[in-house]
Design a protein that fits this description.
- It is a single chain.
- This protein is mainly alpha-helical.
- Among the domains are: 46 residues, no CATH class; 64 residues.
- The chain contains 20 helices and no strands.
- The longest helix has 25 residues.
Length: 416
């Protein structure tokens, strides 16, 4: 007979005994209370009930918990009930993750299980950093690390980028992991995707100060996004830090910053970036040359712009339609109609159609030179091509025509 059956039979026999038995010196009420206490205390022998297990407390940590050397605790896995270790301290989680240092799958299963437990705060950064080190150290779990960082960056209940970067660096030094630039770049990209630009700026600064080179595509997307969000000063300051720290970047980075300068009408600074890139011997492309031509056009330096166009042609780069348009309009403004017409022919040979903007500029050039007939011929051509002249174009053309006719009459009157 097991202990539970024995206790129940004993309790039954005592309760059925006569209350006035002389052999019983214990009062009946006290005797019944005593029996209940004994039965309850015997519940420690009932299978399935674990004794002395405190419930997890999310608001406090058990500071009196014995150390690992005094009281070894079974390693928790995703299959283990929380009752085996109700107080999930950061120390215990870190030690468990370290035991899976060379087993990323088990470490990830354990970490995901820990995150779901009410006794462990998600905002604790150190275990998260250690999990990242284990994943990237294996060399085969970069996608998992990226997904974790994207989730972290999009959450509002986690510490700032500065805290995470500092902890990640310290965690690597403490446990012998090499710093992998991949983690920093994934984190930066995660902040940009989550539109947390202040954290992205802090992350970028931390990377540069630690000597971690941002990946060019991620960095260029980040700086371009800042410029589009009208955070141009922040973008320029970060790029200047890159130059001071001699951090590597490519011509696409320079092009992004040149375009950012032009959004603030900082034409001279944009030109300086291009010149410095050429002096450094950086490998340039058609995009940055197009931006440089745009800069020269904004400064009304038609000769400089045309020379840059010639350099593009030597490298077999076909200028964009916008590049031709800027050049033609600039030449007209400089009253260089001959060069403007040559560029128009080159534009057509490159496979582009003459736009209304180019036609308007050329008609204005004809009028500047007193050639009203050529202006009217071009006007008829754009109408035949199906283009609809704007009201401002009509007014401008009429004004120029009246001016030319007035000038002719005055000249004729003077000769008489």
């Amino acid at each position: 007979m097991n202990s539970e059956g024995f206790i129940l039979n004993k309790m039954k026999s005592l309760l059925l005994a006569p209350l006035s038995s002389p052999s019983s010196s214990i009062p009946p009420r006290i005797r019944f209370s005593f029996l209940l206490d004994k039965c309850i205390s015997s519940s420690s022998f009932i299978p399935g009930v674990i004794e002395d297990i405190p419930s997890p407390n999310t608001n406090s940590v058990d500071t009196n918990r014995p150390s690992e050397s005094e009281n070894s605790i079974n390693v928790l896995t995703s299959q283990s009930p929380i009752s085996e270790n109700p107080v999930l301290t950061q120390t215990h989680v870190i030690e468990t993750l370290l035991s899976y240092r060379n087993d990323p799958f088990s470490a990830l299963d354990y970490f995901k299980w820990v995150e779901k437990q009410p006794g462990f705060a998600r905002g604790i950064v150190y275990p998260f950093c250690l999990m990242l080190h284990i994943l990237v150290h294996s060399g085969n779990h970069y996608t998992v690390a990226r997904n974790l960082l994207n989730s972290y960056a999009s959450s509002n209940s986690v510490p700032s980028a500065i805290v995470l970067v500092d902890h990640f660096i310290d965690c690597g030094k403490r446990f012998g992991f090499q710093l992998n630039p991949l983690v920093f770049n994934y984190l930066l990209n995660g902040y940009v995707r989550a539109r947390r630009f202040a954290d992205a700026v802090d992350c970028f600064k931390a990377m540069v100060s630690c000597g971690v080179a941002p990946w060019a595509p991620i960095m260029n997307n980040f700086l371009s996004t800042l410029a589009k969000k009208n955070m141009i000063d922040e973008a320029l300051n970060l790029f200047n830090d890159l130059i001071l720290k001699k951090t590597s970047y490519d011509c696409a980075t320079v092009n992004v910053m040149m375009c950012a300068c032009l959004r603030r009408d900082k034409v001279d600074e944009a030109e300086k970036y291009f010149v410095e890139a050429k002096v450094r011997g950086m490998k340039l492309d058609a995009a940055i040359y197009s931006t440089a031509i745009r800069v020269a056009c904004m400064k009304l330096e038609a000769n400089v712009a045309c020379n840059l166009l010639k350099e593009m042609k030597k490298m077999d780069w076909v200028p964009s339609e916008g590049t031709f348009t800027n050049l033609i309009c600039t030449c007209v403004k400089q009253r260089n109609l001959t060069e403007a017409l040559r560029l128009k022919d080159e534009m057509i040979c490159s496979g582009y159609q003459i736009s209304l903007i180019v036609s308007t500029s050329l008609m204005k050039g004809y009028c500047q030179h007193g050639d009203l007939n050529s202006a009217l011929e071009l006007f008829n051509e754009i109408v035949e091509d199906g283009l609809t002249p704007t009201r401002s174009l009509m007014q401008s053309l009429l004004k120029d025509a009246v001016g030319i006719e007035t000038w002719r009459r005055r000249r004729s009157y003077t000769r008489k």
